[in-house]
Amino acid sequence: MHAHPKRFKLALEFDGGRYSGWQKQDDAKSIQGSLLKAAAELFEAEADVQGSGRTDTGVHGLRFAAHLEAYTELSPKEIGARLNELLPKDIAILECKRAGARFHARHNCIGRSYLYQIAKRKMALGRNFVWQIPEPLHAGVMQEAATALVGMHDFTSFTDRQAIKKKSPLVMVHQAQIAETDDLILFRIVGSHFLWKMVRRIVGVLAEVGKGQLTVAEVTHFLETPVVLKEYTAPSQGLFFERAFYDQEELDTFLASEPLQPAFF
């Protein structure tokens, strides 16, 4: 046995459709559980895998960050390739890099970015990666409402009450943007962290704004006065964990220059 385990930073892509989110669970399929299983097989020993945060059931990953700790002499490139052979078809390692012994995917993460895709038409091919809304949506008003979310706010209205019993409802939102293609309305939100169901509830509210059912003033009111918005939760299949940020420069560069574009179609 080697004296010390080594740490590696992983970037993952996954289709969350078959999984109950990132977090390992005894009675359900999870992304973390699948990685732990593959790692145990590869290293023939207990290995630890930690993610940059939890994702809800059915949410996808474009470049989800995690770390792996294991006793091994394999190179990062070999680890990535071997894990990919062992992992199911809907989870892929995009990158495996050596990390410092103290690196922690969640504790060291200073920001996260999510992408949501709304389809303006019925989709046969992309149907598992969008929320189809047949009514016309006004993207300009949706952007106006999204802008109201930027800054430090109390997002109690946008999560479930039990989720904030142990956790502050204050979240710093760096960016909230809407973009439109012929077939899609895209929404990106970048923040310090996100509360349970928060992004999906924001999208649900923005869709109502787009339909003319809610006003920008009402969205501002939801931030100032906690209300229960359960009925506005967008489905998880349109949501992608986009990126995790580990230093300010990386985050600033992303905010300044990363184009908002569809996930992969």
Mind explaining what this structure looks like?
The protein is of the alpha+beta class. The chain has helices at about 30-45, 75-85, 140-145, 200-210, 215-225, 250-255, and strands at about 5-15, 50, 60-70, 90-100, 110-120, 130, 150-155, 170-180, 185-190, 240-245. Strands 1, 2, 3, 4, 5, 6, 7, 8, 9 and 10 form a 10-stranded mixed β-sheet that branches. Helix 3 (about 140-145) runs parallel beside helix 5 (about 215-225). The protein is globular and about 60 Å long. The model has no long low-confidence stretch (mean pLDDT about 95).
How much of the sequence lies in strands comes to: 25-35%
Structural class: alpha+beta
Oligomer: single chain
Helix fraction?
10-25%
Rg, nearest Å: 19 Å
Mean pLDDT: 94
Helical region count? 6
Low-pLDDT residue spans: none
Describe the largest sheet.
10 strands, mixed
Q: How do the helices and strands follow one another from N- to C-terminus?
A: EHEEHEEEHEEEHHEH
Find the count of extended strands (DSSP E, 2+ residues).
Answer: 10
Shape: globular
Distance between the termini: 46 Å
